[in-house]
Amino acid sequence: MQHGTAGAGTGVARRSRLGGRVSALVAIGAAAAIALAACGGSSSSSKSTSTTKKSSGAAATAAVKTASSSLGTIVVTNDGKTVYTLTNAGQQVPCSGTCLMVWPAVSVAAGAKASGTGVKNVGTTASGQVTINGAPVYTFQGDSAAGNTNGQGIMSFGGTWNVVMSGGTSGGSSGGGTGTSTPATTAKSGSGY
């Protein structure tokens, strides 16, 4: 009987040694798989990052679009606020200081390029202010809802405020405007602006 017991003991010893080798191989394989996955993950994410940087540097930020209003097809910001220019005798008048509190500039991040959906000749100054046909554009604090045109024809801050029409001109008439507001809208006063 001892022979049978000794034989069984030897088989157990052999299986233990094999089990130890298999466990060691599994551990080495798992470590190799983890190391390989870690290397592959960082390589993959760095490729993704460089591709993202390339595409975002070339893309322009859509800042303005067209919308229908009682004045015709006008230019609005992406959130629907009407876009205006300030002119005096057909010349652009700069808006700065207190003016910008009432008439905030439409802008994108400095260095970014602006574009427009359905709007031609959209540009950007070095500081990020959006321009249309070279004229800086603004919104009006008195427009409480998207599409309001309450600033049309207001005379303040050295000029007259006009809605920018879809053709890039300003004015209250549909069909492109003439650069001046319609008689009905010029009757508005600045009301302290």
What fraction of the residues are assigned to beta strands by DSSP?
Answer: 15-25%
Largest sheet: 4 strands, antiparallel
Mean pLDDT: 71
Low-pLDDT stretches are: 12-16, 29-58, 172-193
What structural category arises from helix and sheet content?
Answer: alpha+beta
Overall shape: globular
Structural domain count: 2
Q: Which percent range fits the helix content?
A: 25-40%
Order of helices and strands: HEEEEHEEEEEEH
What's the N-to-C terminus distance?
Answer: 113 Å
Number of strands: 10
In a few lines, what is going on in this structure?
This protein has 193 residues and is of the alpha+beta class.
Key terms:
single chain; 193 residues; alpha+beta; 2 domains; four-stranded antiparallel sheet; 3 helices; disordered C terminus
Characterization of the model:
This protein is α+β, with helices and mostly antiparallel strands and 193 residues long. It has 2 domains: 1-59; 61-186, no CATH class. Helices cover 34% and strands 21% of the residues. It has 3 helices and 10 strands. Strands 4-3-10-9 form a 4-stranded antiparallel β-sheet, with no helix packed on it. Strand 1 and strand 2 (72-77) form a beta hairpin. The radius of gyration is 34 Å and the shape is globular. Residues 12-16, 29-58 and 172-193 have low confidence and may be disordered.
